[in-house]
Write a structure and sequence with these properties.
18% strand; elongated; alpha/beta
């Protein structure tokens, strides 16, 4: 019997975890899979181990494990597979398939454009975007994030889309804002590339306070969030994964 185990990141802010669960509940309705469970990598429960065992207890013989992460960094490559390995060793008869993070996808860029439009600020011809990522020491993440920035530049018709990170990569948020402040652009749209609200979103708000002047306006857009467009991407990923010819060792391919 097939099962899907959705692995969310987790947050110290309860609202962040609640948003993830609500998103998964929406996605479940569009998938004809008998067993669907949600779990968290850290900072919230149930854990990956508990989610895996919940699938087993309901009779799962094949589990598609899908990381709800934006980019393919250490969490997707190492942390989640390591957690799966711990519990998988007790159930070697179960087939395990491991999916991909959302990655670089033009449909996500469309959501970013929508978030900017939702600010209801008339976009000046002389405007730029500062795209704020979570950050990672993995150079592949920076490459993918820069690719997303370039796609946004084209789709949003911006003269410039710069990037910065909240952790583990440079430029950091303060540096990114400082660099934007030094430009001649009259509008700077600050766009958080985050799935959920939480401490990181609060950090961005604090840094933006009192930055705007008569000559230069800083506008904070809403974070990416669990948009319906992401639900369509996730549903497609799950269906593709379950129709694949993978085997139980796919879970180790990033390790």
């Amino acid at each position: 019997m097939d099962a899907v185990l959705y692995v969310c990141h987790g947050s110290r802010v309860k609202e962040g975890a609640d948003q993830a669960v609500a998103f998964i509940e929406r996605c479940k309705k569009n998938l004809d899979v008998p067993i669907q469970e949600v779990c968290f990598l850290e900072l919230a429960s149930p854990t990956i181990e508990q989610g895996f065992e919940a699938c087993i207890e309901q009779g799962a013989t094949r589990i598609a494990i899908v990381p709800l992460l934006l980019l393919k960094a250490a969490h997707a490559k190492q942390d989640i597979p390591e957690e799966i390995h711990k519990v998988y060793e007790r159930y070697p008869q179960v087939e395990v398939l491991y999916g991909e993070p959302f990655g670089v996808d033009e449909r996500i860029v469309d959501i970013l454009v929508e978030r900017i439009n939702e600010t209801n600020v008339d976009k000046h011809e002389d405007s730029m975007v500062l795209l704020v990522g979570r950050g990672s020491s993995d150079p592949a993440v920076k490459k993918d994030f820069n690719e997303i920035a370039q796609l946004l530049k084209g789709k949003g018709a911006f003269k410039e889309v710069s990037t910065c990170y909240l952790a583990a990569a440079s430029p950091n948020l303060k540096e990114g804002l400082h660099l934007a402040k030094r430009t001649s652009y009259k509008q700077v749209f600050v766009l958080p590339y985050l799935l959920f609200t939480g401490i990181l979103m609060n950090e961005i708000k604090e840094e933006l306070e009192q930055l705007s002047t008569d000559a230069q306006q800083f506008i904070l857009a809403n974070y990416l969030g669990y948009h319906d467009g992401l639900a369509h991407i996730l549903n497609h990923q799950v269906k593709t994964l379950l129709s694949s010819k993978g085997n139980q060792y796919d879970v180790y391919r990033y390790a």
